[in-house]
């Protein structure tokens, strides 16, 4: 590659959001073989600029070229041209496995056959480290922050990019992984590619970058040789002047009362911790990542369950959950701001008031005036930069998000404040503000415990520091001994051994968290219920009874497949029941005994076209008009049902008997329609997990923005899902012809809720990204079985609802609890 070749060229790029000018006239280029640092405060426009470069955002003005080719709002094209980006918040799809995320993250030309993803992914992970502790089969939702970031970095590196963008790449990485990252960066530039390195850690940028560009308030402040500027000069360019980066004065020594103390406190990842924190004091918790300090804090916050003695103001207390901790006056500021700290779609006002809503209650109702007044006061007090208190918090910079969350936590007036990584992903200016706020809070008499992976931050902020190693406190530093050197030395010299037994998860819960668990549980329920019913009433297992149940199950399963297809991408279709009735009504005008072959053929074609037309209308309402799927398909429900009633006010139009006989064909006692339903389930299951279209659909339902970044086309994928859902409803209506035999507009109404119940029982998520077509088949069989069992056992119809409701609640509860346990482990 010729020296000086420009791989990324951005000219006059501006980006405007409603009420916010994020970028203005930015010109930026990255040369072959260089590391180009991009620095600036949170909100300066760094991530937005790279979003435009990657195609995930469309520039309001300006031009972007990668390897000389124009890019405008097309992530897949940007990736194909050679740009890979590691986002500050990993763009992974949580309900997909690590292997599947790596697969979707690569350009199509680099993807292997989907049949052996796990072995392929294991090799990729070993390119990062031979002893990497990440199972390629694990769902991303079970990974911790560091593991998710490693997966994201591996995904980007394996694309063999011409331009690699790293957005705050070391925030979640341990020291040894930071060194690995720098080594990989050097390998990228050695082969002639380039790296854009975005970080708030100026020393890191100076260490790794050849050139650096400074952004401030969405405008460029110049591009410089990284060696020409010292740290203070870079900071001055970032903030527009000199910045006092010193920490606030620490607490004066004195006999302050102990507010919180623990004795022999143990929990997941830590054991036998005895510590105390006094009023007005900041206690820092330091140590290498995953050595128990975060778990200790989260147990005090009631998120994990701890065992041992905890006293508050001299009185023993129990902390069984986060609500109990809050009642005791213990408030927690989480370290993973994106997943646990903010409600991204809610406004600044709602994010602030949600933790202290009782303060706004007047006569039993929330006072809007009080809420707005308190929010405005917090915005001024904490210097939050936001256009308005109604601005969605997700559109603010990381530093301003953190200040809103901190102000929200403090508004509850806690006695003890627990702070996890107070300045993670926060720019240098916002850090100083947060340090000041924490120290002023301590001076008001609040006891504060802080966890930070930055030894300099712990030393500068804390009055006392507890060093954690392998789940235990190995040393407590106080007074003049609280220095960065002493903290680092204590961490590195520890020989403590970890007590691991607290982190174990039972084999049942591990199994229950997997994809196969719902299938096996439903299958077991079917066998158990069938055995009991067969013993109670032998006619239950008679050939006629079994054939009838299979016939009804086939119809419910087929419409369930369509519902599962749509729910997989985060949608739902309430119109499938009326659509089945409409298809039946259409058939009753054409599939008549005295109709010719041409008329009957036209009827079959029209039936399918009607189904596809309804699917297209639903897609237009949801994707085109941005209506919520439930609202859109409820409107279609009423419209389709109205058309059916207009065409057939009362049931009429007998279907040709030959057609009904053909549709009722059996092989032995097994209806052909049931065999077809089983085969379709197997094929669809294979496609779902072993073909790219299936993985793409699950990815889109799991996390739409990450899927779009991975090159999945949301509108096209949802169109396929809506058309597929309606098509299956039409096919199910065909199988229903043999059961109804007449044009009845109300024939399919019960299948709407039935199809949803079947797939939920079979393991589907109402939020998308997870499900099974075999599970939908089993769910349909179980529903039909319950309906039949109640008749054979002489039970009232209410028992149908009791049994179905109980299994739905049980299956959802077990799956949710198992995922919770695995995530916490």
TrEMBL record:
SMART domains: AAA (SM00382). The keyword RNA-binding does not apply. PROSITE patterns: ABC_TRANSPORTER_1 (PS00211), ABC_TRANSPORTER_2 (PS50893). Gene3D superfamilies: P-loop containing nucleotide triphosphate hydrolases. The keyword ATP-binding applies. It is found in: Cell membrane. CDD domains: ABC_Carb_Monos_I (cd03216), ABC_Carb_Monos_II (cd03215), TM_PBP1_transp_AraH_like (cd06579). SUPFAM superfamilies: P-loop containing nucleoside triphosphate hydrolases. The chain crosses the membrane at residues 519-539, 545-562, 604-622, 629-647, 667-688, 719-742, 748-767, 774-793, 799-816. PANTHER family: CARBOHYDRATE TRANSPORT ATP-BINDING PROTEIN MG119-RELATED (PTHR43790), GALACTOFURANOSE TRANSPORTER ATP-BINDING PROTEIN YTFR (PTHR43790:SF9). This is ABC transporter domain-containing protein. It comes from Sinisalibacter aestuarii.
């Amino acid at each position: 590659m010729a020296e000086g070749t420009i791989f990324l060229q951005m000219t006059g790029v501006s980006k405007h959001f409603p009420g916010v000018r994020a970028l203005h006239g930015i010109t930026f280029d990255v040369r072959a073989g260089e590391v180009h640092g991009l620095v600036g405060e949170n909100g300066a426009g760094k991530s937005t600029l790279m979003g435009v470069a990657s195609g995930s955002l469309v520039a309001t003005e300006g031009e972007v070229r990668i390897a000389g080719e124009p890019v405008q709002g097309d992530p897949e094209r940007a990736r194909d041209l050679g740009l890979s980006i590691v986002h500050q918040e990993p763009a992974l799809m949580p309900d997909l496995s690590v292997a599947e995320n790596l697969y979707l993250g690569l350009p199509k030309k680099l993807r292997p056959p989907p049949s052996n993803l796990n072995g392929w992914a294991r090799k990729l992970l070993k390119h990062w480290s031979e002893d990497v502790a990440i199972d390629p089969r694990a769902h991303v939702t079970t990974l911790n922050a560091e593991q998710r970031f490693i997966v994201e970095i591996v995904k980007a590196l394996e694309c063999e990019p011409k331009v690699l963008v790293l957005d705050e790449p070391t925030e979640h990485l341990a020291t040894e992984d930071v060194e690995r990252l720098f080594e990989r960066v050097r390998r990228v530039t050695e082969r002639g590619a380039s790296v854009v390195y975005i970080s708030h850690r100026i020393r890191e940028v100076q260490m790794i970058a050849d050139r650096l560009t400074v952004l401030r308030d969405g405008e460029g402040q110049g591009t410089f040789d990284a060696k020409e500027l010292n740290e203070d000069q870079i900071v001055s360019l970032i903030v527009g002047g000199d910045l006092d980066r010193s920490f606030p004065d620490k607490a004066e020594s004195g006999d302050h009362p102990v507010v919180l103390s623990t004795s022999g406190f143990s929990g997941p990842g830590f054991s036998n911790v005895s510590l105390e924190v006094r009023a007005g004091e900041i206690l820092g918790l330091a140590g290498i990542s995953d050595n128990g300090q975060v778990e200790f804090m989260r147990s005090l916050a009631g998120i994990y369950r701890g065992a041992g003695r905890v006293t508050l103001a001299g009185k023993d207390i129990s902390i069984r959950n986060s609500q109990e901790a809050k009642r005791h006056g213990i408030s927690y500021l989480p370290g993973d701001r994106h997943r646990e700290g903010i409600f991204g779609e809610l406004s600044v006002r709602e994010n602030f008031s949600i933790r202290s809503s009782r303060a706004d209650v007047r006569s039993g109702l929330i006072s809007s005036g009080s809420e707005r007044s308190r929010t405005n006061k917090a915005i001024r007090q904490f210097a939050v930069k936001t256009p308005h208190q109604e601005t969605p918090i997700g559109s603010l910079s990381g530093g301003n998000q953190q200040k809103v969350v901190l102000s929200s936590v403090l508004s509850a007036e806690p006695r003890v404040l627990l702070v996890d990584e107070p300045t993670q992903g926060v720019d240098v200016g916002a850090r100083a503000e947060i340090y000041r706020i924490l120290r002023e809070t301590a001076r008001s008499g609040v006891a504060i415990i802080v966890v930070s992976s930055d030894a300099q931050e712990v030393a500068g902020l804390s009055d006392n520091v507890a060093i954690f190693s392998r789940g235990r406190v190995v040393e407590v530093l106080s007074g003049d001994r609280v220095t960065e050197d002493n903290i680092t030395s204590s961490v590195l010299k520890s020989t403590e051994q970890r007590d691991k037994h607290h982190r174990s998860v039972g084999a049942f819960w591990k199994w229950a968290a997997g994809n196969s668990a719902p299938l096996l549980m439903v299958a077991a329920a079917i066998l158990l219920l069938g055995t009991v019913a067969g013993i109670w009433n032998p006619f239950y297992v008679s050939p006629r009874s079994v054939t009838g149940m299979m016939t009804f199950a086939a119809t419910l399963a087929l419409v369930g497949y369509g519902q599962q297809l749509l729910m997989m991408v985060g949608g739902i279709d309430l119109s499938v029941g009326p659509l089945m009735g409409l298809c039946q009504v259409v058939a009753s005008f054409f599939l008549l005994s005295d109709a010719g072959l041409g008329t009957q053929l036209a009827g079959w074609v029209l039936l399918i076209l009607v189904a596809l037309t309804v699917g297209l209308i639903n897609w237009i309402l949801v994707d085109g008009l941005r209506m919520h799927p439930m609202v859109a398909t409820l409107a279609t429900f009423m419209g389709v049902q109205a058309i059916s009633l207009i065409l057939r006010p009362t049931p009429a139009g007998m279907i040709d008997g030959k057609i009904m006989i053909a549709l009722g064909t059996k092989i032995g006692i097994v209806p052909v329609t049931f065999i077809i339903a089983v085969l379709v389930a197997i094929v669809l299951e294979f496609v779902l997990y072993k073909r790219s279209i299936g993985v793409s659909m699950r990815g889109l339902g799991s996390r739409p923005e990450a899927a779009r970044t991975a090159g999945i086309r949301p509108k096209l994928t949802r169109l396929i899902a809506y058309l597929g859902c309606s098509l299956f409803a039409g096919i199910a209506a065909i199988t229903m012809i043999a059961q109804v035999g007449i044009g009845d507009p109300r024939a399919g109404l019960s299948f709407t809720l039935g199809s949803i119940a079947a797939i939920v029982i079979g393991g589907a998520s109402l939020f998308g990204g997870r499900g099974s077509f075999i599970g939908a088949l089993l769910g349909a069989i179980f529903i039909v079985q319950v309906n039949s069992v109640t008749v054979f056992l002489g039970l009232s119809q209410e028992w149908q609802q009791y049994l179905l409701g109980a299994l739905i609640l049980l299956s959802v509860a077990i799956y949710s609890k198992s995922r919770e346990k695995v995530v916490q482990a």
